[in-house]
Design goal:
Blueprint (H helix, E strand, L loop, with lengths): L4 E5 L7 E6 L23 E7 L14 H13 L5 E6 L1 H12 L4 E7 L11 H11 L10 H9 L11 H11 L11 H5 L5 E6 L6 H22 L2 E5 L4 H4 L1 H12 L1
Helix pairs in contact: 1-2, 4-5
């Protein structure tokens, strides 16, 4: 197994129940812009384990980031926790969390999915069909494109502000450029639907997002969140904005405390 890096926050002297956080693309667990820094207050009662997926943050490089490999890493981490752990995943990290929970539901205390990229759950939705048609017909990323150019096109090109292209950020972008396409994943919904622990899905409303960003990212993620919540019988929490855990941390943190309570 690849030794992934895990950052721990714990104010309980080891007595708190563990909660594992899994990040999306372009970011890493302790990233102040897109990671889970705003969830640090939860460390007053829980041991927060923020994963850096392969090729991100302080984890080793990888030829291709892969959701199946990420799921294996998560299962290994969960198995090291006495009694399992709460599991929280955002975007592509949400997909990996679903796969891990489906493989070893006995290691999970609860599952929280923040706009999970589990598009197989909503393949019949017209917005998802349009997205799949668009990405499958694309030529992919040319080798001549640099991580900074890709980051600029993925942010400023969609009307967003480009984050500071630090070396760590550009490494995360380079890994994201070669990540295995998430639409290839088939998520096992049945074990999540019948699991004995609760599941929550959190989704932004995206009403204030730039138009292109909302169309190309927001609408598919909303459709996916709705489909996943319905398929597994989860509560669907809608919050303002498009990065729920960073833009609305008080609401998200309160929901996590309630779920974990």
């Amino acid at each position: 197994m690849t030794a992934i890096h895990v950052t721990e926050w714990d104010e309980t002297d080891g007595r708190g129940v563990p909660a594992v956080f899994v990040h999306n693309i372009f970011t890493w667990g302790s990233d102040e812009a897109y990671g889970f820094v705003a969830q640090r207050s939860l460390a007053d009662r829980y041991r927060l384990l923020r994963v850096d997926r392969r090729g991100y943050g302080h984890s080793p490089d990888t030829d291709q980031s892969d959701f199946d490999a990420d799921a294996d890493d998560l299962v290994e981490l969960l198995a090291r926790q006495d009694g399992g752990a709460h599991l929280v995943g955002h975007g592509n990290g949400g997909l990996a969390a679903m796969l891990a929970a489906g493989r070893r539901p006995d290691l999970v205390r609860s599952l929280t999915l923040i706009q999970p990229a589990a598009f197989s759950a909503a393949t019949g939705h017209p917005v998802i069909q349009e997205m799949l048609h668009r990405v499958r017909d694309s030529a992919g990323v040319p080798d001549s494109v640099t991580p900074e150019q890709y980051l600029r096109a993925s942010t400023e090109g969609l009307g967003m502000a480009m984050p500071d292209p630090t070396p760590q950020r550009l490494r995360a972008v380079a890994t994201s450029m070669h990540e295995r396409p998430v639409w290839e994943a088939v998520v096992p919904l049945s074990p999540l639907r019948t699991a004995p622990w609760p599941t929550s899905v959190i989704c932004g409303t995206w009403q204030d997002a730039p138009e292109l960003y909302r169309r190309y990212a927001g609408e598919p993620l909303i459709a996916c969140a709705e489909a996943v919540a319905e398929a597994v019988g989860a509560r669907l929490l809608r919050v303002a904005g498009y990065y729920p855990h960073t833009q609305q941390p008080a609401t998200v943190n309160a929901a996590l405390r309630e779920l974990w309570g």
